[in-house]
Amino acid sequence: MSRVTRCVPIEGRDLLSGKVALVTGGDSGIGRAVAVAFAKEGADVAIAYLEESDDAHRTAELIEAEGRRARTYSGDLADAAHCIDVVGRTVSDLGALDILVNNVAFQNPVDDFMELEPEQWRRTFDVNIDSFFHTTRAAVPHLTGGGAIVNTGSINGLRGNKQLIDYSATKGAVTALTYSLAQALLERRIRVNCVAPGPVWTPLIPATMPADKVADFGAQVPFGRAAQPDEIAPSYVFFAADQLSSYYSGEVLAPIGGETLPG
Q1: Alpha carbons 192 and 239: distance in angstroms, whole number
Q2: Contact between 41 and 12 (Cβ < 8 Å)
Q3: Pairing relation of β-strands 252-253 and 148-152?
Q4: Which residues are catalytic, by number?
Q5: For 186, which DSSP code?
């Protein structure tokens, strides 16, 4: 199998025409790819991210290039009040909220479990799972009656990772949260699903991994390479669009490069 990276362009079909989406961690990587894919499908998109950067402004430009409205909200989503605020601002600025993508994430690998400090453990949970709770809770009143929530999980949440212990634990929690919310929000007609990718080239990889690991990143999967974010984004479009996934809730879609998982 070739290890040459591929980028799959998304051709819009108005699957999300007239919808409003909020994507956390939407300034780069998977979040950016999802935000742009939603815009191609006709949605206005707000993105929430940690710090002001060229990445966020570039994402907004790409959304607007599709003829859609974009909003950008910087701040720490580990803060419950900020999670609530970005939901309120999305509704105020764009007039509604139909789709919530909980995608923001933090990771910092360790070589030994004893290197994992309590402060890092707390930070990882604050960002990777607590923010999902706070943002979702604020969004539910607006999504009730036909909204969609898509959570970003990970292959590491399905099988663990000895160097990403805290990250893997939060991603396992995302899977369980997805299952539970799908049941809890059914009567409100809110569908809740999860995308759990394998290795994907995002800014987190070179920022948090040593150079030798980055060089071989993704080589272990059957496809022999990591995915590009644009290859993962269609999974989110699938779960966001009623036309494609009206009978799906509580599902985990795992684009993991040809690997198969038992169970």
Answers
A1: 8
A2: yes
A3: unpaired
A4: 167
A5: G
What's the CA dihedral at 155, 156, 157, 159 to 10 degrees?
90
pTM, two decimal places: 0.91
Alpha helices (runs of H) in 66-164, residue ranges in sequence order: 80-94, 118-125, 131-143, 155-159
pLDDT tens figures, 221-254: 867 777 889 999 999 999 999 999 999 999 999 9
Q: What is the DSSP string of 189-234?
A: T-EEEEE--SSB--THHHHHS-HHHHHTTTTTSTTSSPBPHHHHHH
What span, in angstroms and rounded, lies between the C-alpha atoms of 19 and 144? 14
- Residue-wise pLDDT tens digits, 164-178: 999 999 999 999 999
User: SS3 for 47?
Assistant: strand
Helix (H) or strand (E) holding 169: helix 165-184
Q: Mean of the pLDDT values across residues 8-17? A: 80
Q: What are the angstrom distances between the C-alpha of 170 and each of 23, 126, 167?
A: 18, 9, 5
